[in-house]
Protein backbone atom coordinates (compact mmCIF):
# COMPACT_ATOMS: atom_id res chain seq x y z
CA UNK A 1 0.00 0.00 0.00
CA UNK A 2 0.99 3.63 -0.46
CA UNK A 3 1.04 4.92 3.09
CA UNK A 4 1.78 8.25 4.70
CA UNK A 5 3.08 8.13 8.27
CA UNK A 6 3.05 11.20 10.51
CA UNK A 7 4.71 11.14 13.93
CA UNK A 8 8.09 9.42 14.41
CA UNK A 9 8.40 9.53 18.18
CA UNK A 10 9.33 6.63 20.45
CA UNK A 11 6.43 4.55 19.15
CA UNK A 12 5.99 5.87 15.62
CA UNK A 13 9.53 5.21 14.46
CA UNK A 14 9.24 1.49 15.21
CA UNK A 15 5.79 1.28 13.65
CA UNK A 16 6.90 2.99 10.43
CA UNK A 17 9.95 0.74 10.25
CA UNK A 18 7.78 -2.35 10.40
CA UNK A 19 5.55 -1.02 7.63
CA UNK A 20 8.67 -0.72 5.48
CA UNK A 21 9.77 -4.23 6.40
CA UNK A 22 6.34 -5.50 5.31
CA UNK A 23 6.93 -4.03 1.86
CA UNK A 24 4.66 -0.98 1.97
CA UNK A 25 5.51 2.26 0.17
CA UNK A 26 5.89 4.62 3.14
CA UNK A 27 6.21 8.41 3.07
CA UNK A 28 7.12 9.85 6.46
CA UNK A 29 6.74 13.27 8.06
CA UNK A 30 7.95 14.49 11.41
CA UNK A 31 8.73 17.93 12.80
CA UNK A 32 12.20 16.74 13.84
CA UNK A 33 14.04 16.14 10.58
CA UNK A 34 16.66 13.80 12.01
CA UNK A 35 14.04 11.17 12.70
CA UNK A 36 12.88 11.37 9.10
CA UNK A 37 16.41 10.81 7.81
CA UNK A 38 16.72 7.62 9.84
CA UNK A 39 13.64 6.19 8.15
CA UNK A 40 14.82 7.34 4.72
CA UNK A 41 17.95 5.20 5.14
CA UNK A 42 15.58 2.25 5.59
CA UNK A 43 13.71 2.97 2.38
CA UNK A 44 11.07 5.53 3.30
CA UNK A 45 10.35 8.66 1.30
CA UNK A 46 10.62 12.01 3.07
CA UNK A 47 7.61 14.33 2.96
CA UNK A 48 8.44 18.02 2.81
CA UNK A 49 5.26 18.83 4.75
CA UNK A 50 2.16 17.23 6.18
CA UNK A 51 0.27 17.54 2.91
CA UNK A 52 2.88 15.49 1.06
CA UNK A 53 2.34 12.63 3.51
CA UNK A 54 -1.39 12.58 2.72
CA UNK A 55 -1.32 11.80 -1.00
CA UNK A 56 -1.54 8.01 -0.75
CA UNK A 57 -4.32 5.53 -0.02
CA UNK A 58 -3.88 5.81 3.72
CA UNK A 59 -2.27 8.11 6.26
CA UNK A 60 -1.41 6.78 9.70
CA UNK A 61 -0.82 9.19 12.57
CA UNK A 62 0.98 8.43 15.83
CA UNK A 63 1.07 11.62 17.89
CA UNK A 64 1.34 12.62 21.52
CA UNK A 65 -1.98 14.24 22.33
CA UNK A 66 -5.23 15.82 21.12
CA UNK A 67 -3.54 19.11 20.27
CA UNK A 68 -0.97 17.47 17.99
CA UNK A 69 -3.65 15.42 16.22
CA UNK A 70 -5.87 18.45 15.74
CA UNK A 71 -2.97 20.35 14.17
CA UNK A 72 -2.12 17.50 11.78
CA UNK A 73 -5.73 16.91 10.75
CA UNK A 74 -7.30 20.38 10.78
CA UNK A 75 -4.27 22.66 10.39
CA UNK A 76 -2.89 24.18 7.19
CA UNK A 77 -2.09 21.36 4.78
CA UNK A 78 -3.54 18.84 7.21
CA UNK A 79 -5.21 15.53 6.48
CA UNK A 80 -8.74 16.90 6.08
CA UNK A 81 -7.57 19.27 3.35
CA UNK A 82 -5.06 16.93 1.70
CA UNK A 83 -6.50 13.43 1.67
CA UNK A 84 -8.38 12.43 -1.47
CA UNK A 85 -12.00 11.31 -1.42
CA UNK A 86 -12.16 7.72 -0.19
CA UNK A 87 -8.72 7.79 1.44
CA UNK A 88 -8.40 6.53 5.01
CA UNK A 89 -6.96 8.18 8.09
CA UNK A 90 -5.80 5.63 10.67
CA UNK A 91 -5.23 7.23 14.07
CA UNK A 92 -3.08 5.20 16.45
CA UNK A 93 -2.67 8.06 18.90
CA UNK A 94 -4.10 7.90 22.42
CA UNK A 95 -6.65 10.70 22.19
CA UNK A 96 -9.91 11.71 23.81
CA UNK A 97 -13.17 10.02 22.94
CA UNK A 98 -14.56 13.44 22.03
CA UNK A 99 -11.80 14.16 19.50
CA UNK A 100 -12.17 10.72 17.95
CA UNK A 101 -15.86 11.40 17.44
CA UNK A 102 -15.04 14.78 15.90
CA UNK A 103 -12.48 13.22 13.55
CA UNK A 104 -14.93 10.59 12.34
CA UNK A 105 -17.54 13.25 11.57
CA UNK A 106 -15.07 15.58 9.82
CA UNK A 107 -13.63 12.85 7.61
CA UNK A 108 -17.10 11.63 6.68
CA UNK A 109 -18.12 15.15 5.71
CA UNK A 110 -15.02 15.39 3.49
CA UNK A 111 -15.81 12.07 1.81
CA UNK A 112 -12.88 10.37 3.55
CA UNK A 113 -12.76 7.38 5.88
CA UNK A 114 -11.54 7.09 9.45
CA UNK A 115 -10.31 4.16 11.54
CA UNK A 116 -9.28 4.52 15.18
CA UNK A 117 -6.51 2.03 15.93
CA UNK A 118 -4.71 2.92 19.18
CA UNK A 119 -2.04 0.47 20.28
CA UNK A 120 -0.85 -1.18 23.47
CA UNK A 121 2.86 -1.67 24.05
CA UNK A 122 6.06 0.20 24.88
CA UNK A 123 8.65 1.34 22.29
CA UNK A 124 10.57 -1.96 22.33
CA UNK A 125 7.33 -3.79 21.57
CA UNK A 126 6.57 -1.36 18.74
CA UNK A 127 10.04 -1.91 17.27
CA UNK A 128 9.47 -5.68 17.37
CA UNK A 129 6.12 -5.38 15.57
CA UNK A 130 4.35 -6.96 18.54
CA UNK A 131 1.84 -4.28 19.50
CA UNK A 132 -1.75 -5.10 20.36
CA UNK A 133 -4.13 -2.98 18.30
CA UNK A 134 -7.65 -1.94 19.32
CA UNK A 135 -9.37 -1.01 16.06
CA UNK A 136 -12.79 0.44 15.31
CA UNK A 137 -14.46 1.73 12.17
CA UNK A 138 -16.66 0.65 9.30
CA UNK A 139 -15.98 -3.05 8.54
CA UNK A 140 -14.77 -2.37 5.00
CA UNK A 141 -12.43 0.36 6.27
CA UNK A 142 -10.93 -1.84 8.98
CA UNK A 143 -10.50 -4.65 6.44
CA UNK A 144 -8.75 -2.26 4.05
CA UNK A 145 -6.14 -1.27 6.65
CA UNK A 146 -5.70 -4.77 8.11
CA UNK A 147 -2.38 -5.37 6.28
CA UNK A 148 -0.94 -2.29 7.98
CA UNK A 149 -2.21 -3.30 11.40
CA UNK A 150 -0.81 -6.80 10.89
CA UNK A 151 2.59 -5.27 10.11
CA UNK A 152 2.76 -3.25 13.33
CA UNK A 153 1.15 -5.69 15.76
CA UNK A 154 0.73 -9.29 16.82
CA UNK A 155 -3.02 -9.06 17.32
CA UNK A 156 -5.82 -6.73 16.26
CA UNK A 157 -8.94 -6.63 18.42
CA UNK A 158 -11.96 -5.27 16.54
CA UNK A 159 -13.83 -3.20 19.09
CA UNK A 160 -16.75 -1.69 17.22
CA UNK A 161 -17.90 -0.08 13.98
CA UNK A 162 -17.81 3.26 15.81
CA UNK A 163 -14.22 4.61 15.94
CA UNK A 164 -14.45 6.42 19.28
CA UNK A 165 -14.98 3.16 21.15
CA UNK A 166 -11.46 2.01 20.26
CA UNK A 167 -10.17 5.12 22.02
CA UNK A 168 -12.35 4.37 25.02
CA UNK A 169 -10.86 0.87 25.21
CA UNK A 170 -7.36 2.32 24.99
CA UNK A 171 -7.98 4.81 27.78
CA UNK A 172 -9.52 2.12 29.97
CA UNK A 173 -6.45 -0.04 29.37
CA UNK A 174 -4.03 2.70 30.34
CA UNK A 175 -6.09 3.30 33.47
CA UNK A 176 -5.57 -0.38 34.36
CA UNK A 177 -1.82 -0.14 33.69
CA UNK A 178 -1.53 2.89 35.95
CA UNK A 179 -3.58 1.11 38.63
CA UNK A 180 -1.12 -1.79 38.57
CA UNK A 181 1.84 0.58 38.79
CA UNK A 182 0.38 2.37 41.82
CA UNK A 183 -0.50 -0.93 43.52
CA UNK A 184 2.97 -2.36 42.92
CA UNK A 185 4.52 0.79 44.34
CA UNK A 186 2.46 0.59 47.51
CA UNK A 187 3.16 -3.13 47.98
CA UNK A 188 6.89 -2.61 47.51
CA UNK A 189 6.90 0.31 49.93
CA UNK A 190 5.26 -1.95 52.49
CA UNK A 191 7.81 -4.77 52.24
CA UNK A 192 10.67 -2.31 51.72
CA UNK A 193 9.89 -0.45 54.96
CA UNK A 194 10.09 -3.80 56.73
CA UNK A 195 13.62 -4.26 55.40
CA UNK A 196 12.89 -6.87 52.72
CA UNK A 197 14.58 -6.80 49.33
CA UNK A 198 12.29 -5.23 46.73
CA UNK A 199 13.96 -6.85 43.72
CA UNK A 200 13.67 -10.30 45.32
CA UNK A 201 10.03 -9.55 46.10
CA UNK A 202 9.37 -8.48 42.49
CA UNK A 203 10.99 -11.66 41.19
CA UNK A 204 8.84 -13.72 43.54
CA UNK A 205 5.64 -12.02 42.39
CA UNK A 206 6.37 -12.26 38.69
CA UNK A 207 7.53 -15.88 38.77
CA UNK A 208 4.43 -17.10 40.63
CA UNK A 209 1.01 -15.46 40.91
CA UNK A 210 1.66 -12.30 38.87
CA UNK A 211 3.51 -13.53 35.80
CA UNK A 212 1.93 -11.08 33.36
CA UNK A 213 4.15 -8.71 31.34
CA UNK A 214 2.69 -5.62 33.04
CA UNK A 215 3.88 -6.88 36.44
CA UNK A 216 7.25 -8.03 35.11
CA UNK A 217 8.06 -4.78 33.32
CA UNK A 218 6.80 -2.32 35.91
CA UNK A 219 7.69 -4.45 38.92
CA UNK A 220 11.31 -4.44 37.80
CA UNK A 221 11.37 -0.71 37.14
CA UNK A 222 9.87 0.12 40.53
CA UNK A 223 12.05 -2.34 42.42
CA UNK A 224 15.20 -0.92 40.85
CA UNK A 225 13.99 2.69 40.86
CA UNK A 226 14.84 3.06 37.17
CA UNK A 227 12.55 5.71 35.70
CA UNK A 228 14.89 7.24 33.10
CA UNK A 229 15.03 7.34 30.16
CA UNK A 230 11.27 7.51 29.83
CA UNK A 231 9.73 5.03 27.41
CA UNK A 232 6.35 6.62 28.17
CA UNK A 233 6.73 10.00 29.82
CA UNK A 234 4.82 10.89 32.98
CA UNK A 235 2.97 13.85 31.38
CA UNK A 236 1.48 11.45 28.82
CA UNK A 237 0.31 9.11 31.56
CA UNK A 238 -1.23 12.04 33.37
CA UNK A 239 -2.98 13.09 30.17
CA UNK A 240 -4.43 9.62 29.63
CA UNK A 241 -5.90 9.46 33.12
CA UNK A 242 -7.50 12.88 32.62
CA UNK A 243 -9.00 11.69 29.33
CA UNK A 244 -10.32 8.54 30.98
CA UNK A 245 -11.95 10.65 33.69
CA UNK A 246 -13.48 12.96 31.07
CA UNK A 247 -14.99 9.96 29.27
CA UNK A 248 -16.24 8.62 32.58
CA UNK A 249 -17.89 11.92 33.44
CA UNK A 250 -19.68 11.99 30.09
CA UNK A 251 -20.95 8.47 30.71
CA UNK A 252 -21.68 9.16 34.40
CA UNK A 253 -19.35 6.42 35.58
CA UNK A 254 -17.64 7.08 38.95
CA UNK A 255 -13.94 6.11 38.84
CA UNK A 256 -12.52 6.81 42.31
CA UNK A 257 -9.25 4.99 41.60
CA UNK A 258 -8.74 7.06 38.45
CA UNK A 259 -9.24 10.19 40.54
CA UNK A 260 -6.53 8.95 42.91
CA UNK A 261 -4.22 8.28 39.97
CA UNK A 262 -4.80 11.78 38.64
CA UNK A 263 -3.56 13.17 41.95
CA UNK A 264 -0.59 10.79 42.02
CA UNK A 265 0.50 12.05 38.61
CA UNK A 266 0.02 15.64 39.76
CA UNK A 267 2.25 14.90 42.76
CA UNK A 268 4.93 13.44 40.51
CA UNK A 269 4.82 16.33 38.04
CA UNK A 270 4.73 18.95 40.81
CA UNK A 271 7.97 17.51 42.18
CA UNK A 272 9.74 17.80 38.81
CA UNK A 273 8.97 14.40 37.30
CA UNK A 274 8.16 15.58 33.78
CA UNK A 275 11.05 13.68 32.19
CA UNK A 276 10.50 10.46 34.12
CA UNK A 277 8.71 7.37 32.89
CA UNK A 278 5.10 7.18 34.02
CA UNK A 279 6.05 4.18 36.18
CA UNK A 280 7.66 6.73 38.53
CA UNK A 281 4.29 7.13 40.24
CA UNK A 282 5.13 3.67 41.63
CA UNK A 283 8.02 5.27 43.51
CA UNK A 284 5.87 7.79 45.34
CA UNK A 285 4.69 5.35 48.00
CA UNK A 286 8.27 4.65 49.05
CA UNK A 287 8.90 8.39 49.46
CA UNK A 288 5.67 8.74 51.43
CA UNK A 289 6.91 5.95 53.71
CA UNK A 290 10.23 7.73 54.33
CA UNK A 291 12.31 5.34 52.25
CA UNK A 292 15.21 6.53 50.10
Mean of pLDDT: 97
Q: Helical proportion?
A: 40-55%
User: Major sheet: order of its strands?
Assistant: 3-2-1-4-5-6
Number of strands: 9
* Shape label: globular
Main beta-sheet strand count, sense and barrel state = 6 strands, parallel
How large a portion of the residues is in β-strands, by DSSP E? 5-15%
Could you spell the SSE succession in H and E letters?
EHEHEEHHEHEEHEHEHHHHHH
How many distinct helices?
13
The first-to-last residue Cα distance is 53 Å
Helices and strands: which structural class? alpha/beta
Low-confidence segments, ≥5 residues, pLDDT <50?
A: none
Radius of gyration: 20 Å
Topology:
Elements: E1 2-6, H1 12-21, E2 25-29, H2 33-40, E3 45-46, E4 58-61, H3 66-74, H4 79-82, E5 88-91, H5 97-109, E6 113-116, E7 119-120, H6 123-127, E8 131-136, H7 139-152, E9 153-160, H8 164-193, H9 198-207, H10 213-224, H11 234-251, H12 256-270, H13 284-288
Helix pairs in contact: 5-8, 8-10, 8-11, 8-12, 9-10, 11-12
Summarize the structure in words.
The protein is α/β, with parallel strands linked by helices. 52% of the residues lie in helices and 14% in strands. It is built from 13 helices and 9 strands. The strands form 2 sheets. Strands 3-2-1-4-5-6 form a 6-stranded parallel β-sheet, sandwiched between helices. Strand 5, helix 5 and strand 6 form a beta-alpha-beta unit.
Task: Kindly summarize this structure in a few lines.
The chain is an alpha/beta fold and 292 residues long.
Amino acid sequence: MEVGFIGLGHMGAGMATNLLKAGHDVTVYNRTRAKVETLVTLGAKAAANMSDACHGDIVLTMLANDEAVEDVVFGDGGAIHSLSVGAIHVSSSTISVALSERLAAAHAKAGQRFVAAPVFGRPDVAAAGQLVVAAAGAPDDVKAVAPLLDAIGRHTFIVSEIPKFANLVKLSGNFLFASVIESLGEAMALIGKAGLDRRQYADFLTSTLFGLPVYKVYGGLIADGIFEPAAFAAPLGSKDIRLALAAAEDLRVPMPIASLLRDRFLTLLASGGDKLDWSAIGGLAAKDAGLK
